[in-house]
Amino acid sequence: MERLQKVMAAAGVASRRASERLIATGHVTVNGHTVTTLGTKVGAHDHVEVDGVPLHHEREVYYLLNKPRGVISSAHDEKGRRTVVDILKDEEVDERVYPVGRLDYDTTGILLLTNDGDLANRLMHPKFEVAKTYVAKVKGLVTNDDLKQLRRGVQIDGRRTKRAKARLKETDRTKKTSIVQLTIHEGHYHQVKRMFEAVGHPVIKLHRETYGPLNLQGLQPGEFRPLKPEEVQQLKQH
């Protein structure tokens, strides 16, 4: 017997955390009965459905998406807004995939989608410190002191962010804006935006360039591709 959310993640429905939300909000039935208790355990002979679709184990797939603006980084959206999963479905990707981590509605860039629950949980766990590089257009003229603060770490909710890499790419003295490249090894809620706010430079636009060893070479916004076997191995060895 295993916890229901773990079984759902292994079947490619969503990450364990997202599966817990699906359970809690009444999307899941076990043997015909709606289950909302997170501690529920199921066995091989239990019949599990998510939104009326029976659970079955799918082949593990891995996709890299260049997320456009105005799309939700989720498998489901209660408000009916377009999601990153919808982009893949439009191209007839049949497996039930879900995003590894999140990018904000107005943030663009690299996003991994998979039905490999174990890899997704590993990549999102803080101790593995997957490097993520962002390019941010921010208000104001960023100084060397600002960059030093970002590199050392800034205070957010009473805790200091870990050391980061920060590089000023360009400034526009007329419009009083700057473009900064920032590499972090964490993934806290709105972290990049809040780091820039902490040094007095609110984000205007944000784009994620890299995720671990992966980049967006050859992908236009809204385009995606399957990962190569060697790329999957690189992620698993991270």
Q: What is the number of domains? A: 3
Task: Find the CATH topology of the largest domain.
Answer: Alpha-Beta Plaits
Shape: elongated
Distance between the termini: 30 Å
Q: What is the β-strand count? A: 17
CATH superfamily of the largest domain: Pseudouridine synthase I, catalytic domain, N-terminal subdomain
Oligomeric state of shown chains: single chain
- The second-level CATH architecture of the largest domain is 2-Layer Sandwich
**Tell me about the biggest sheet?**
9 strands, mixed
Structural class: alpha+beta
Tell me the number of helical segments per DSSP (H or I, 4 or more residues long): 7
Q: In the CATH hierarchy, what is the class of the largest domain?
A: Alpha Beta
- Give the H and E element order: EHHEEEEEEHEEHEHEEEEHEEEH
Range of helix content: 10-25%
Mean pLDDT: 92
Secondary-structure blueprint:
Blueprint: E1 2-3, H1 4-10, H2 16-24, E2 28-30, E3 33-34, E4 41-42, E5 48-50, E6 53-54, E7 62-67, H3 84-90, E8 98-99, E9 108-114, H4 117-124, E10 132-139, H5 144-152, E11 155-156, E12 159-160, E13 165-172, E14 177-184, H6 191-198, E15 203-211, E16 214-215, E17 224-226, H7 229-236
Parallel strand pairs: 9-15
Antiparallel strand pairs: 1-4, 2-3, 2-5, 5-6, 7-9, 7-17, 8-9, 10-14, 10-15, 11-12, 13-14, 15-16
